[in-house]
């Protein structure tokens, strides 16, 4: 499968715990995005990487959230001290360049109990 | 600020009939518009995009979309619906001038195609 891969697909965690998600983009794509989707809503932009540089962060990305993309390949999204409001689908997407569409992974569904 | 609106929460259509899923947009400057589809337990799949050029854009799975600048609309269409088209459809607009896919999505429209 040469699409965007996300791991894990599902995560249930207790409030206050830390979680980390991984995204492997399409191999030649230098642009990587994280989005969050809550039930009944469209995805909301969280952050953008071009290669290893994080070029934009949404205000939705509080201090408890951190994303990295070492070496411009895979990316991780960590949430510290999870809250029930963090329960959502976290989507990763990648794209190649200007004007190209972004391709999304299947997402990681986080449930905070 | 850029935004899109999908005025219908759900669209019902009989198999074989034409379908339309509506989207209107509000942007400053030239719009970069997209349609994505989401099947249950699957990620978003890219259907088509409008950047410039012909107002009728053809995409995947027989879908097309019509860009109408005067009505600020970008409706998704298909001449003959299939039951397998039943899914959640999202319209999106690219936000910002950075040249990357920071997308603003609508709330989505659920399409139900009945046999």
Question: How would you describe this protein?
Answer:
The complex is a heterodimer of chains A (113) and B (115). Chain A starts with a strand and ends with a strand. By secondary structure, chain A is mainly β. In chain A, strands 2, 4, 5, 6, 9, 10 and 11 form a 7-stranded mixed beta sheet that branches. In chain A, strands 1-3-8-7 form a 4-stranded antiparallel beta sheet, with no helix packed on it. Helix content of chain A is 0%, strand content 50%. The model of chain A has no long low-confidence stretch (mean pLDDT 92). Chain B has strands at residues 3-5, 10-14, 19-21, 24-26, 33-38, 44-50, 56-58, 64-68, 73-78, 87-94, 103-105, 109-114. In chain B, strands 2, 5, 6, 10, 11 and 12 form a 6-stranded mixed beta sheet that branches. A 4-stranded antiparallel beta sheet of chain B has the order 3-9-8-7, with no helix packed on it. Chain B has a two-stranded antiparallel sheet with strand order 1-4. With 115 residues, chain B is mainly beta. Classes of the chains: A mainly beta (113), B mainly beta (115). Chain A binds chain B through residues 4, 6, 31, 33, 35, 40-45, 48, 50, 55-56, 91, 93, 95, 98-107, and chain B through 32, 34, 36, 41-46, 49, 51, 90, 92, 95, 98-108.
């Amino acid at each position: 499968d040469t699409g965007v891969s996300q791991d894990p697909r599902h995560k249930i965690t207790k409030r206050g715990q830390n979680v980390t998600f991984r995204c492997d983009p399409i191999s030649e794509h230098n642009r990587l995005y994280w989005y969050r989707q809550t039930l009944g809503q469209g995805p909301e932009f969280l952050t953008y990487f071009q290669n290893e540089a994080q070029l934009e962060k949404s205000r939705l990305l509080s201090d408890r959230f951190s994303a990295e993309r070492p070496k411009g390949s895979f990316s991780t999204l960590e949430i510290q001290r999870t809250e029930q409001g963090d329960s959502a689908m976290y989507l990763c997407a990648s794209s190649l360049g200007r004007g190209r569409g972004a391709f999304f992974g299947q997402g990681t569904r986080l449930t905070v109990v | 600020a850029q935004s899109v609106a999908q005025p219908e929460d759900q669209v019902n259509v009989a198999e074989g009939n034409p379908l339309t899923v509506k989207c209107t947009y509000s942007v400053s400057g030239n719009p970069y518009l997209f349609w994505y589809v989401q099947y249950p337990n699957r990620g978003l799949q890219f259907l088509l995009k409008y950047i410039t050029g012909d107002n009728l854009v053809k995409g995947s799975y027989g879908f097309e979309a019509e860009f109408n600048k005067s009505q600020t609309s970008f409706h998704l269409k298909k001449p003959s619906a299939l039951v397998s088209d039943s899914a959640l459809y999202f319209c999106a607009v690219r936000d910002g001038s950075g040249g990357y896919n920071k997308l603003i999505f609508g709330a989505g429209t659920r399409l139900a195609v009945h046999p």
